[in-house]
Structures are given as structure tokens and as C-alpha cells.
Amino acid sequence: MKVMTIFGTRPEAIKLAPVIAALEAKAGIESRTCVTAQHRSMLDQVLELNGIVPDHDLDLMRRAQTLDAITAALLTEIGHVLDNDVPDRVIVQGDTATAMIGALAAYYRRIPVSHVEAGLRSGDIYRPWPEEVNRRIVSTIADQHFAPTTTAAEALYREGIDPATVHVTGNTVIDALLATRAKMAANPGQTKGLDLLFSRFTQRRIILVTTHRRENFAAMTAVAEAISTLARRSDVAVIFPVHPNPNVAGVMERMLKGRDNIAMIPPQDYPHFVALLDKCDFVLTDSGGVQEEAPALGKPVLVMRDTTERPEGVTAGTARLIGTDPLRIVAEAHALLDDRDRYDAMSRAHNPFGDGQASRRIIDVISQA
């Protein structure tokens, strides 16, 4: 069986790396990979870390490209790859343009599709935008749905997906996180450079910030205002790997540059980011993946969104939805900083997103298809 894994962004690469490793270790499967490079430099970091050399690299990233342009380019170029390589099955992950178009191009050629991280739903097609619609489209095409949780599986059942095609596996990001921590323990040099950063902030509570969602671009000024207010506390430091999108970086550079206890740093490779997660006190984010990763390390998550497709974290108590109003952000962060009981309740809550065996379960199903 020839199985092609198609991906294009850093989060996809992180979550699919353990799946690709499991594919390559499975007898009877020929593993092929196609990257679209929807995120070029950030994708390459993960490929190098995991020793993945793509069979096809479409290199489609263009500065300030529109959704129309990337969608058209993806459909044409992925189509050429599928016509030339002719896989028996395609794997896509999550909710990116690459995942949606990879599934669509496979469907046009009657190639079955496996969807990793299936069933996530916010219930609002504009939050996250365009990811909510992307993943719904994939669900109508896929014949194997690998749901990370029972909540995600139930969302698929409500949409009429055949329960026999839905498999609850856990989320592969936990596989990636645990594997990366093991590599870091064996080779501490993988995170060189962070000790100097951390030494700047001894005796301070570290807040790790990430933000990149398209629907939050209009709120970046409010987010920056909240970060600026939090950084006025003498017991706080903010570490902020700034997404390179000018809608994010431009605002943050203008409003936060030069503050002694705000470290705006480039996007980090995965080991460095895991080290940041491990070191911080809590996370302020609009990222979906971080909502899954941080609880695995006992870190509370304040989610700067009004809805989430990962309600399991909110239900379990590992995460709180706080939106992007700066007053609310500051109030929720102060509550974690000043109320030890609240902090402990969130940091010790059960992580609902997996046990590190998701990739093995996924490949077992694919190999039996």
C-alpha cells in the first residue's frame, strides 16, 4: 500500500511527524510525503528535527498571498503530484488550506482520505476562519476519521458520519511532545540559547504568549495593550515568539518594542518551544495546538478567543476562554498570578488530549483498510 501524507505548515508537520515515523516502520506500507510549504521556514525546522526529506516539495509560500491564490495553487500542484505518484491513500491533518485541498484533490481522483485530528468543531464558520470550514469539508470527503477525543467523535456522529469510520485515537501532538521531551533529555544542547533568556527573568513569573489567528488580526492592538499592561508588574516577564505575519509582527513591534521584561523573539523550533512551555507559568494564546500541549506539561492556558474547537480543555479545567478584550485578558492573568488555588486547579487538571499512542493506533487502522 502506497500512502501519501500531505502537509504544509509547522503545526501539521509537528503532529504528522510521529504518524510518518509509524508509517515508515510498518511492514507492507510505502510512505510518501508531499509538503506544500504553506509555512516555509517554520516547516523546515520541523522537517530537519525529525529527519523528514519530502518526496515532493511544492514550495508554494508567497509573501502576503491571498486565500484565493493559495487555494488555486494548492489544488493545481497537489493534483499534479497525485497524478504522477498515484498513492493508494492520502493522509491529511487538521484544518489548513493544505489539508482541505489535499483531501479535495484526492477526492477528484477517487483516492481515499484519512483525516488526522478529525471532528474538531467550534460551531461558528467564522471562528476560527477559515479553518472551521476547511475541516468540515475534509470530513465530507474522508473515509477514515481519526478523532482525538470522544467529544470530537460525537461531533462527527451528529453530522451523520458513519460511526464505523470514526476512530478515537488521542491527539498525535501528545506523541510529538513526549518524543521531543525525550530527545531533549538525551541531548540538552537541542535547546541551547534559552538559558541566557531565562537568566534575564529570574524571580519573575513567566507568561508565554502566542497569537496568529486570522480572525484575531483586527484585535492585535488590544492584545498588545493587554501584554503591555501585564508587563508593568515587577514580578512578571513575557516571552513572546512573534509570528512573522505582518498583521501580528507589525503591531507588536510598534507597541511593545524596548520593554525590558518583554522578550519578543523569532518563532522557535519545536524543542525550543517545548522548553518555553516547560519553563513558563502559564500561556496566553489563540493557538489550537497549544491548548493541547500546555496541559500535558501542567500549564494553565488562557485562550484569547470567544469559541474553541477544543472544548475538552475548558471542560477539564485546563483552559479558559477569555476573548480579546484587554481588560478581561489582564484580569484573568492577574487571577492566575495572584490566586494560588485557581492556578493549582488549572495546572493539576486532567489533560484530555491523549497518552502518546495516537500514531500507533492510526497506523494500525490504515494498515488494515
Report what the structure shows.
The structure is a single chain. This protein is of the alpha/beta class and 369 residues long. Helix content is 48%, strand content 15%. The chain is built from 16 helices and 13 strands. The protein has helices at 10-25, 40-50, 67-85, 97-108, 131-141, 150-158, 172-186, 194-199, 220-230, 246-256, 270-279, 288-296, 311-316, 326-338, 340-347, 358-367, and strands at residues 2-7, 30-35, 56-57, 89-93, 113-116, 144-147, 166-168, 205-210, 236-241, 262-265, 282-285, 301-303, 319-321. Strands 3-2-1-4-5-6-7 form a 7-stranded parallel beta sheet, sandwiched between helices. Strands 10-9-8-11-12-13 form a 6-stranded parallel beta sheet, sandwiched between helices. α5 (131-141) links the parallel β5 and β6. The longest helix has 19 residues, at 67-85. It is globular, with a radius of gyration of 20 Å. The mean pLDDT is 94.
